[in-house]
Automatic annotation (TrEMBL):
<keyword id="KW-0256">Endoplasmic reticulum</keyword>
<keyword id="KW-1133">Transmembrane helix</keyword>
<feature type="transmembrane region" description="Helical">
    <location>
        <begin position="542"/>
        <end position="565"/>
    </location>
</feature>
<feature type="transmembrane region" description="Helical">
    <location>
        <begin position="728"/>
        <end position="747"/>
    </location>
</feature>
<feature type="transmembrane region" description="Helical">
    <location>
        <begin position="807"/>
        <end position="825"/>
    </location>
</feature>
<feature type="transmembrane region" description="Helical">
    <location>
        <begin position="636"/>
        <end position="655"/>
    </location>
</feature>
<keyword id="KW-0472">Membrane</keyword>
<feature type="transmembrane region" description="Helical">
    <location>
        <begin position="995"/>
        <end position="1018"/>
    </location>
</feature>
<dbReference type="InterPro" id="IPR017850">
    <property type="entry name" value="Alkaline_phosphatase_core_sf"/>
</dbReference>
<feature type="transmembrane region" description="Helical">
    <location>
        <begin position="667"/>
        <end position="687"/>
    </location>
</feature>
<feature type="transmembrane region" description="Helical">
    <location>
        <begin position="904"/>
        <end position="931"/>
    </location>
</feature>
<keyword id="KW-0337">GPI-anchor biosynthesis</keyword>
<feature type="compositionally biased region" description="Basic and acidic residues">
    <location>
        <begin position="39"/>
        <end position="52"/>
    </location>
</feature>
<dbReference type="GO" id="GO:0005789">
    <property type="term" value="C:endoplasmic reticulum membrane"/>
</dbReference>
<feature type="transmembrane region" description="Helical">
    <location>
        <begin position="943"/>
        <end position="965"/>
    </location>
</feature>
<keyword id="KW-0325">Glycoprotein</keyword>
<protein>
    <recommendedName>
        <fullName>GPI ethanolamine phosphate transferase 3, catalytic subunit</fullName>
    </recommendedName>
</protein>
Length: 1106
């Protein structure tokens, strides 16, 4: 695509003051001497000023020649009126900028408060009960008596079967990893097939010693929540009352707590999540915990577990422990890094197969071996959601002695798929507790696994009935305690399983051999299933008033933001007339010299509105105790936050209405305004549909294409032929770039089979294809040249721009390209003879250098760099000169017409480099296209005089949302690219690792928010008035887009809270929109507003203030 032709610079007229002469015939008169002295002084000042850029203003005639414009002030301070006026304007700008930042910080708090209250009522909660099961107090009398009943030595509630247990967790062990697969031309095998045959073959050949079953996890399928369910036997929720979502210690009754109370010595090897959940439980001398978050490391954790588990299983050291937990992470990390269909996955599964074979050989008859996956993984190797591949894990139990059985002959062969005979993961809790002679944890909702208690012949119905009866009694006790704690009348609960309990008890009410244990077993299982269903519905009770409060606060924030934007909107583009500028400045100077500073009033309405927020918060704080006494809220902090948010919103809205004399028509008055409204509102309404949410990226592409077509047709109406050609060129380029970016896709499960993923090498891979490694090198070669073409179009490729764009920026891009090449070489083992950590040790400093260049060197350069201009003086007139000084020389300022925009773009380039550093090759291509689209958008807005229209900020918002999907993301937890946390790091470092993940996930939105001031600053000359107001307005419209989307997703998630697709589609979309809103708020403050301050001070220091 050829560079657009530059627009011709405008020539400037020069106004020279006339030097007064002495009166004829009286050259010695006082008046004549005064006039000559005054003229000489003015000429001297003028010549001195022409040696710097500030003097060029006098060349324009801005200052006058009457001695008032830039002459002395009569106070002996050496500063003229112009200098003093500039100082006042600079101070006014700094002061008002402070009020603006204060307002936006308040708005961020409002958004955070609204999202907090909605989330608090929306995310499911359950009350954690403090009760614990006791060995001596079973929930019901024992069915049969045995010696030592009620003691850990013989078995608390059931005779103990095993003395010891080894529990091996193979993270992300999906069920189909363990079953045999027959290769065919129609369904070719993948890398994970037939790599772990030991589990299936043992269960098939030795049914009395082993069984293999699908092990179904409850979403969310994250390791933290899964371990909670696997040890407590209760259902996971997003928030547990009395517990923290961030992985603090589990305080409710659990398996490990019962083991510890029974005197069992616990050992842990592997994933350090266990030590966070169960601090102080494990034998410190022989336990080993390893960092679990480094998904790029496939071997450290697994090798550490293997190194320590085999010695502990030896006869010499069996007496040091009773229960061992070994958590392998290699399979999970191979999935995250490469995807399941990769040779690395084959290698890890084969390693696990060998390890399990060795472990089985080392066991004795009194040790139970449990092997399981905590969750599965999707086609790319990620997890966190509720798709079948993510919830279908595997469970395998083994014993050297024959204890396991099947109630049907058909069950002797392990299920071929995860849809056959699955068991819930919570069922492991009562199973392990009874086999080890421990009490079942109080909160358990699972049931005993049939194969573990059916006996070798599969007909020990008395044993099955006994364990089902004991487990059901514990569930009944927990349910009654939960109802009491919650203040719920059991009789009001729909579908109470009380009748099922009575039926089961009646079935076993006979005497002696007349008891029908088989029917009783079936009835107790039915009781457990019904209770589980009721608990799911009970914990799915949303706090609707809290949700309404959050929505109301968000709606109030949107209203305040819209009124703020409309109150600061420009009436239209400023008139570019040097004569008018000179007259206005002269009038301003005259008024200032006379002490009349009325013209220096507030540029925006920020001070008034922010004072309203402070006053409202103050009044709310005064009334808060009285309101609290009347309502007696349980949580004082939440109550205070709610009152503060609402009262400050009322204060802002009151101040805005008080400021306005009347309310005009709120509807748009131009086609562009209507387009901005239609894009925002239609997208927000569309989120009520699951299909719309699934195909959001395609809808966004349609909106962007619509804008491009509209701008192309609008360009046809431009009078100037060159402008008309440029407008059509940039419009077509904007559309074409959008379509080019659309080829980068990461399909979500619901889009199949109508979508084909191209972001990675294949749909079952998490690595880039070899040809994709060329993309960063192409970006390094082309992107700086593209940015340069937009600079040269406004004659702004001057000052720091050539060095920073052509050298520093390109060098950073080359570093990124080399990094991903080394990463691919490491993944593909291109150099097998090199040490395994060498490439990692090389590429991490490369990434660190890239970030240092963008953040440290880039920030310093932007902070201290002058405007991107160049000044030259020639003695003789030449065509195209801009300014003629008093001596007839020509002063040319290249970049003058874009002094603000060209300098601020340097900051956006720094942000762009940071985002590119954390994107994979395909994502880097998409972000580069986005940067190009932003530049074309700037030209379109300039040509069509739309700098003050809300369409620009809205289109930027659409670009950010669109390219979120083009960088390999979806509104699902599984699409989070966790490996980005380690691009410039060897291990986890807080807070940097989470920041890197956020930069990878929301880099497109961050780049768009950073570019908002460019919509106003691009092609703006120095001393342009109202820039702060215009930027604040543009930022308001931009944030309003995200705020409306976030408000809509909260409303739809609340309204559709009983929808079947709530946790698969609507809830992830709400969470993503909420995070994006907070991120954009922060970037708007930390980058856009701070960058505007530095940019304005730099330009104002050189050219003066408008």
């Amino acid at each position: 695509m050829a560079d657009p032709p530059p627009r011709a610079p405008e020539s400037k007229k020069v106004y020279e003051p006339v030097i007064p002469k002495a009166a004829p015939g009286n050259y010695n008169s006082i008046a004549a001497q005064y006039a000559r002295a005054k003229a000489a002084k003015e000429k001297e000042e003028r010549e001195r000023e022409e040696r710097n850029v500030g003097g060029i203003l006098t060349g324009f005639g801005l200052g006058g020649g009457d001695g008032k414009g830039r002459g002395g002030n009569g106070k002996g301070d050496g500063k003229g009126t112009f200098e003093r006026l500039n100082e006042v304007k600079e101070l006014r700008f700094k002061g008002e900028w402070g009020w603006v930042v204060g307002f936006w910080v308040w708005l961020l708090c409002i958004h955070a408060a609204g999202l907090y209250f909605f989330t608090k009522g929306f995310l499911l909660t359950r009350l954690v009960l403090e009760e614990k099961s006791s060995c001596t107090e079973p929930p019901i009398s024992l069915s049969t008596q045995y010696q030592g009943a009620g003691t850990p030595e013989a078995g608390c509630w059931h005779p103990k079967t095993f003395e010891k247990a080894v529990v091996i967790i193979i993270d992300a062990l999906r069920y189909d990893f363990t079953v045999p697969f027959k290769n065919s031309t129609d369904t070719p095998s993948q890398a994970f097939h037939n790599a772990l045959p030991f589990l299936y073959e043992t269960a098939e050949k030795q049914p009395g010693n082993a069984f293999l079953l699908p092990f179904i996890a409850d979403p969310p399928t994250t390791t933290l929540q899964r371990l909670k369910g696997l040890t407590t036997g209760t259902l996971p929720t997003f928030i547990d009352a009395g517990s923290n979502f961030a992985g603090t210690a589990i305080e409710e009754d659990n398996l490990l707590m019962q083991m510890k109370d029974a005197g069992r010595r616990l050992v842990h090897l592997g994933d350090d999540t266990w030590t966070a959940l169960f601090p102080g439980y494990f034998e410190e001398e022989i336990s080993r915990a390893y960092d679990s978050f480094n998904v790029w490391d496939l071997h450290t954790v697994d090798n550490g577990v293997v190194e320590h588990i085999m010695p502990l299983l030896s006869p010499a050291r069996r007496g040091e422990w009773d229960v061992m937990f070994a958590h392998f992470l290699g399979v999970d990390h191979a999935g995250h890094r490469y995807g399941p269909n990769h040779p690395a996955m084959t290698a890890k599964l084969e390693q696990m197969d060998a390890v399990l074979t060795e472990v089985v050989d080392a066991l004795d008859d009194q040790t139970l071996l449990v092997v399981m996956g905590d969750h599965g993984m999707d086609g790319k190797g990620d997890h966190g959601g509720e798709s079948d591949d993510e919830v279908q894990a595997a469970l395998w139990m083994y014993s050297k002695k024959d204890v396991f059985g099947r109630t049907k002959l058909d069950y002797r062969i392990p299920p071929a798929t995860a849809k056959e005979r699955p068991v819930n993961q919570i069922d492991l809790v009562p199973t392990l507790a009874l086999l080890l002679g421990l009490p079942i944890p109080f909160n358990n909702l699972g049931r005993p696994i049939e194969e573990a208690f059916a006996g070798v012949k599969g007909n020990t119905w008395e044993n099955l009935g006994a364990v089902a009866r004991m487990t059901a009694a514990g569930i009944k006790r927990y349910q009654a305690a939960y109802y009491v704690a919650r203040g719920v009348d059991e009789s009001t609960v729909d579908g109470s399983p009380k009748a099922l309990w009575e039926t089961a008890v009646t079935t076993l009410a006979g005497t002696g051999k007349q008891q029908n244990w088989q029917d009783g077993y079936a009835t107790f299982l039915a009781f457990q299933e019904e209770t589980l269903r009721i608990c799911r519905s009970l914990w799915a009770r949303f706090d609707v008033p809290c949700m309404i409060l959050g929505i109301s606060i968000l709606a109030g924030g949107v209203l305040a933001l819209m009124m703020y934007a409309s109150g600061n909107s420009d009436d239209g583009d400023a008139i570019d007339d040097p004569e008018l500028d000179r007259a206005e400045l002269q009038l301003e100077l005259d008024n200032f010299a006379k002490g009349n500073a009325s013209a220096l009033e507030d540029e925006t309405t920020t001070r008034t509105l922010f004072r309203g927020a402070l006053m409202g918060s103050f009044l709310g704080a005064l009334l808060c105790p009285t309101i609290w006494v009347m309502n007696r809220s349980e949580n004082v902090l939440d109550f205070g936050l709610a009152v503060g948010a609402i009262s400050s919103l009322v204060g802002v809205l009151y101040q805005d209405m008080r400021r306005r004399m009347s309310f005009g028509n709120p509807l748009p008055t131009t086609i562009w305004g209507w387009l901005a409204v239609i894009f925002t509102v239609s997208q927000s309404i569309g989120f009520a549909s699951n299909s719309y949410t699934i195909w959001e990226d395609s809808i966004l592409l349609f909106f962007l294409g619509t804008f491009g077509v509209a701008s192309a047709f609008s360009s046809l109406r431009l009078e100037n032929a060159a402008d008309r050609a440029l407008g059509i060129y940039h419009s077509v380029a904007f559309i074409a770039l959008g379509w080019l970016a659309s080829f980068s896709k990461l399909c979500r499960e619901e889009q199949m089979p109508y979508c084909r993923s191209t972001y990675y090498a294949s749909a079952t891979s998490s690595t880039s294809a070899p040809w994709q490694l060329l993309i960063p090198f192409v970006v390094a070669a082309v992107l700086p040249a593209i940015i340069k073409s937009f600079y040269t179009g406004s004659r702004s490729y001057e000052g720091l721009a050539p060095a920073w764009i052509s050298w520093a920026f390109r060098f950073g891009l080359v570093l990124s390209a080399v990094f991903w090449t080394l990463d691919a070489a490491d993944d593909g083992e291109w150099f097998p003879n090199l040490p395994s950590t060498l490439l990692k040790n090389i590429r991490v400093p490369i990434a660190q250098t890239g970030f240092a260049l963008a953040l440290v060197a880039g920030s310093i350069a932007f902070g201290y760099a002058p405007p991107c201009i160049s000044i030259s003086t020639t003695a003789a007139p030449t065509p195209g000169s801009q300014i003629t000084n008093s001596s007839g020389a020509l002063v040319t300022i290249l970049g003058y017409a874009n002094a603000h925009g060209s300098r601020y773009l340097l900051l956006v380039i720094n942000i762009l480099l940071c985002v590119l550093m954390v994107q994979k090759p395909m994502g880097a291509g998409a972000i580069s296209i986005m940067a190009w689209q932003i530049l074309t958008l700037l030209e379109i807005l300039d040509l069509l005089s739309l700098a003050s229209s809300p369409i620009g900020p809205i289109i930027l918002g659409l670009l950010g949302s669109f390219h979120f999907f083009k960088t390999g993301h979806q509104a699902t937890l599984a699409s989070i690219q966790w490996e980005s946390a380690f691009i410039p790091l060897h291990t986890i470092r807080y807070p940097w690792s989470p920041i890197l993940v956020a930069l990878n996930s929301f880099g497109a939105q961050m780049l768009a928010a950073s570019a908002v001031p460019l919509l106003v600053l691009w092609k703006q000359k120095p001393r342009r008035k109202g820039l702060l107001r215009s930027v604040v307005t543009a930022l308001s419209w931009h944030v309003a887009y995200y705020a409306v989307v976030s408000l809509a997703t909260t409303m739809w998630a609340g309204h559709l809270r009983r929808h079947l697709m709530l946790y698969r589609i609507f809830s992830p979309k709400f969470m993503m929109a909420a995070l994006v809103l907070v991120v954009v708020d922060f970037i708007g403050i930390a980058v856009a507003l701070v960058g505007l301050r530095f940019n304005s001070l730099s330009v104002g220091e050189v050219f003066g203030w408008g």
